[in-house]
Amino acid sequence: MKNWKRFTAIVAAGAMALTMAACGGSSSGNTDNTDASSAAQASSAGEAAAPGQAWYIGGIGPTTGGAASYGLAVKNGIQLAVDEINAAGGINGYPIEYAFQDDEHNAEKSVNAYNALKDWGMQLLIGTVTSTPCVAVEAEAEADNMFLLTPSGTSVDAISGANAFRLCFSDPNQGVGAAQYIGEHNLAKKIAVIYDSSDVYSSGIYEKFAETAKEENLEIVCAEAFTAQSNKDFTTQVQKAADAGAELVFLPIYYTEASLILQQCAAMDYAPLFFGCDGLDGLLGVENFDTSLAEGVMLLTPYAANSDDPLSVAFTDAYKAAFNNETPIQFAADAYDCVYAVKQAIEKAGATPDMSVSDLCEALKTAMTEITFAGVTGEITWEADGEPNKTPKAVIIENGSYKML
Predict the structure, then answer these.
(1) Reported pTM
(2) What would be the CATH architecture of the domain defined by 172-301?
């Protein structure tokens, strides 16, 4: 087991393991609507178990908009785990009821979704999917002392409360890991960074990357920002990277903007190496994107669909069977593991669904620090601050699919 806090020493010792890094209908109350009544109606339509006789688990994430690939993957990953667990007898003998809300990667809509799920009867939350909405929702969940486990909210503030845990690595740890990987493997010396200064995910990764790059003797020859209001034309940023002689462009951003940057680099005959984090997962699924432009792109992620790891193979096969042969991305695997981690923690705590939301949260906060979870995304333990300890991995895109490094 490798803790991110020990990652520098581990990489220096040469022991790093490599691999890379946000739907189906349900009888358990799965819904994408964002008002409380629709969630309740969906649950009734599925003949939901009475309160106290089932675990009411909510999920929040973008199933529409620019980050929809993440949210749909999380929604499906949760659904698959819920269906498997219910088929096997539930958790401590009780079934799971599940409802999911679309927040469109918008903080205000995410809080509305949280309140809708509370009205539905949510006892614990898996979400939210993206960082900025997660920060907003976590404040609400902390006030309610509701247990929150985010599969992919990487901002440090996304789990600021004692009630919150995360399955993924934080932004700082992704920035540190990316710089260390580039330096350890001597991928390049001159680095350009293109990042979103209006997004806590992107700017948080960039800050730590820049700090660690100095330790790795990497030269950041240019760092070019954009915002949510200027995320379509990157010719200026690309030209500056090319003019500065950058051998590698680091992209701590989401896949939609990354696809545009790759297209604009190709149009300018600029062909550096590209390295990103988990936000690039989904790049191969961008509509009308020439995936050949993504050949050689590297990113940090804990899961690859073509891995020969037995747990990954079983998950990938089950996901494809459940969702029209769709290949899952990392966010689906993270979400799937979240449900099973919650199951293990509930069993460890001996909890029952008739407990209050606050009492359940208190039980899970302790139990999460006492379990060792072995899932699709690796073996994980948790600290009391909600941060995971697990092995970092990386992948490269080859022939239109991920290959573990």
Answers:
(1) 0.77
(2) 3-Layer(aba) Sandwich (3.40)
